[in-house]
Amino acid sequence: FTIHEDATAALVQVRQREYIRERHKQEWDHEREVEDLAQRRQREHERECQDLFLAEGDSRFTLERAEATARYQLREEDITAKSTLRRQHVQKAQGARQRLRTERVYTDDTEQLELLGQE
What residues of the chain score a pLDDT lower than 70? Predict the structure, then answer.
């Protein structure tokens, strides 16, 4: 019976490691998406400022740049808020999936032990 307990514990550990690995991958992918979006927004902002400088005179450029910077900051705040909400949603979903997996592992392992006990 100890062998079965050891096998069950090993199976649970493997599943837990797989879950943690997947969760880390999802978090890294999400962080990479956020960084890529932030870099893209920064390039757009720089292009806007450059276009304004070339198209308008120097005196208007200062005002236009201030407006472009304000728009950029608003977009960044929006991205941060969305990212936070998404991360919270992902974490809630992962918690629910983990609870389901844990219940399944327990049920599967219990059924396997019962079957082994019948043999």
Answer: 1, 55-61, 104-119
